[in-house]
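Sample 1 of the test manifest.
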Amino acid sequence: MRVLKLYLDGRPAPLTPAPRLENGEVLIPLHTFCEAVGAEAKALDGGGQLAVCKGDLCIPLKQAETVSIDGVVYAPLTAFGEPLGLRWQAEGDSLRVTSGAGDRTGLGIGERPPDFTLPDLYTGEPVSVSDYRGRKAVFYMWASW
Amino acid sequence: MIAQDAQGAGVARPWVEKAEATYRALLDQHNVIGKAYSLKFVPVGILVDEEGRLARAVGGVNIDDEAFRRELTGWVTTGTIPRAWVEADRRSTPRALTPDEAEADARFQLAVVLLEQGKREEAIAELKRAFRLDPENWLIRKQLWAVEHPEAFYSGPVDFDWQKRQRQEEDAEMRQK
């Protein structure tokens, strides 16, 4: 078992108790985690069946999926993370969760990105974002490694 | 297509040629984009409209992904920004570099210059310092791997098993500290 520190969209979001990695599976403390990602864990129909709800979307959890440790209900993130639009990665002692914002790069739609000028890979000729004014352009960043 | 390659055009060109690329290929040896756009990994797509305004910055972009291709085609033909892009945008908060990230970038820049001067060992030392300052920055981390262990990257297909082992070893080392 490994205790994990939660990062939400790149920022530390400590939970008590903390998420844990058990047998390769990420277990999160259900109620505090849901709160942190703007969701809610609640009993369906007032019964014992728990569900994770966000907006008008509710994902029921199977009883077998949840586990109670020291009075705290834990659930595997795989039980509801994807339908909620979360992506995550447990690495070392960090659990990095992105809510779709982690794929952003620090600019908003409609803003003008910083103009950059880079050399052509073959000719060395400088090319700028502003050279593409008047046309739509897709810049794709990649690497040989 | 913009290659994020501190080692220069020589390592990037073979990939472009193998792909028989019909689009323009650029080189970003000094992590200009990484810094301007706070990128910490590739691949990333940046979509800019006729007025030079951002329509979408998307990580892990895959042109073979059908949903993304549909969104992209819609945007190119009609100029409509898909709801998914707007929602992803709404959830995000831009932020400035932390002091550690800024120092990591400075050391990365230094490493590029050292590489150009053929001082490989010194470049590796700087890249290692940069990596420790900004361990989540995969542009730095994997660049370091490629410089220090070229055999895992540039002789035949990229060795992903090697990368996995390397990552586990480094992560274990960082946990001990």
